[in-house]
Known about the structure:
With about 300 residues, the chain is of the alpha/beta class. The chain contains eleven helices and 13 strands. The protein is globular. Keywords: Antibiotic resistance, ATP-binding, Nucleotide-binding, Transport.
Amino acid sequence: xxxxxxxxxxxxxxxxxxxxxxxxxxxxxxxxxxxxxxxxxxxxxxxxxxxxxxxxxxxxxxxxxxxxxxxxxxxxxxxxxxxxxxxxxxxxxxxxxxxxxxxxxxxxxxxxxxxxxxxxxxxxxxxxxxxxxxxxxxxxxxxxxxxxxxxxxxxxxxxxxxxxxxxxxxxxxxxxxxxxxxxxxxxxxxxxxxxxxxxxxxxxxxxxxxxxxxxxxxxxxxxxxxxxxxxxxxxxxxxxxxxxxxxxxxxxxxxxxxxxxxxxxxxxxxxxxxxxxxxxxxxxxxxxxxxxxxxxxxxxxxxxxxxxxxxx
Length: 312
């Protein structure tokens, strides 16, 4: 990557962070455009959270350049933070306070006037679908409600950039979808979203563009559909023959698809037409215990690039 593009609100060049002998972030470069939803997709320990902490100005980089809205977060921390909303991996709400008070007291850290904060708190509770919980104690909320409150709190200062570190980890499917809906709405309002995730469906749903990160390095960059087109076939046939037999039948699957991948519990056949490939498997006298045809996903991209599953 050359110079930062003119509409980049975040620009990183050869960004590196080492902890002693361990290099957590290993010379990554990327730009995030205004209004974009940008993702860092990779397994736990890939360096995603470390990158987010450097953007947020709470962790100093070892080397490389980083600018947020044209400013260096290490040199102009308060000015940068005025533009940022931060949703950390772990909810750090004040459990003793009431829901609405969490928003108002947090806003005081930004020096915002109380009259404004009371009005803003009500707007944010409506946005987070928590109006009826305004007077409840935080420790009485469900996990999904706490996550929505954490996001609402991060919006108190009307940030132009929202950093979300693993926003839906630990939530049930329904709570995740409610949260996704809230994030879509923020994007529609022009907020730039930067999120880390190890859920490929979340990355596909929320990200206009993403970088695939593994062991502190960028393995690929692009939109989810472009990455899938570039690194995978259109469909995937998943076959289970039983743990002991998966490896044994691999040689008999030659030609039923473009390529095969052996995982501990199944064989993946990458193919343009999954149903056709399944017919070929059966025509060869092979009898899988289970079979599933699905469209290719970012999980397949990650597997192709690293030889491992995202959830390893």
